[in-house]
Amino acid sequence: MGRAPCCDKANVKKGPWSPEEDAKLKSYIEQHGTGGNWIALPQKIGLKRCGKSCRLRWLNYLRPNIKHGGFSEEEDNIICSLYVSIGSRWSIIAAQLPGRTDNDIKNYWNTKLKKKLLGKQRKEQQAQAQARRVSNNQQKQDLKRETENLVVASEVINQVPYWSSSEFSSVPMPVVNASFQHYGLNNQTSLGSMIVNKLEGITFSNDHHQQQQQPYANACEIPSLQDQAFPTMVNQVTVVSNENNSGTYQPSNIFQGFENFPSDFCEPVCVNPQQMEAFNYGMESMDMTMSNGGSTNTTSTESTSWGDMSSLVYSPLVSDYERCRQGIPQDHVVAFEECKYFGMQMQ
DNA sequence: AATGCCATCAACCGCATACTT
DNA sequence: GAAGTATGCGGTTGATGGCAT
């Protein structure tokens, strides 16, 4: 047996609300409150609407102090930061923005903010790709000069780089640590494809010697990457540390059989698009961090720890949220989150 | 002027959880 | 504790308006 319908569908009006309906609902709630029963409310005031519809209309449109549109830069930052931190918990995000509704924020994110960020990201990636091309040309010239001087054995010269695209011949794998869990990126397919997907944006020193010997402190593991999208991927991704005698990053152990990288992987194989978005947004900032400050003398922990993503979170806000939540007895958490509708501050 | 396409946003739907009996 | 019901949430849909052709 299915769920009992919340209202008589046949007898209920759907679609946009008329000004008369709005007026009825608003005046009733202002005088009497909701009475704690949304289902019964429309009958009381003679509205042919579903209780849920009334509730939504009130919360998203009729209740006092609602703001529509005109999101400020600061609000954008807050939304982005919280999205990175907690994902699409729109009601919680709305709680941090007095006068904003979850629906409004959700729409704003989906229609504007997301595109704005992705556009920004694309722009930066293009700039980075351009920079890499310049860098690679320089590398090729350097290499040419060296080979002329050192008379390198022909088999070494002719060795085909693992990454067929020259752009990726020097890209090290980022170190993955437990903080990935924080972002809910526990799906191996998502994880793997996102790493690959985002490698394009990671830039390192223009010095090819450093590129060849990018130091990493830790080995990292991506266990059980056995998804179809990664047919022959090895189970363990090892990045050799400087302490290791070889001191060399060895990409040939990774993603074996993906000579067409990155084009094969640029198509995200992400189960949860929201995680992908959040991750992309986070990686965008990480890219910037790495490009700006992490290009030289970076340690693995500095340059590639996913924990660095915390830097792009609007820290006071998120930490306040977490602190508030953690500081509240479990019984009151719900009340805390419900305060959003009235822009109330927890003491 | 007519048409098609696209962006926006209000509203709906279904699911999960909380609450009540 | 189980079943029924109400509420809240997030994903999706559909109506609408603006713009390009």
Please summarize what this structure is.
By secondary structure, this protein is mainly α. Helix content is 48%, strand content 0%.
Strand percentage, roughly? under 5%
Largest sheet descriptor = none
Please give the alpha-carbon distance between the first and last residues: 45 Å
The CATH class designation of the domain at 70-155 is: Mainly Alpha
Number of separate strands? 0
Share in helix: 40-55%
Number of helices: 13
What would you call the shape? elongated
Q: What's the Cα radius of gyration? A: 27 Å
CATH superfamily of the domain at 70-155: Homeodomain-like
CATH topology name of the domain at 70-155: Arc Repressor Mutant, subunit A
Uncertain spans? 149-276, 282-313, 321-347
Overall residue-averaged pLDDT value: 54
Q: What structural category characterises the helix and strand content?
A: mainly alpha
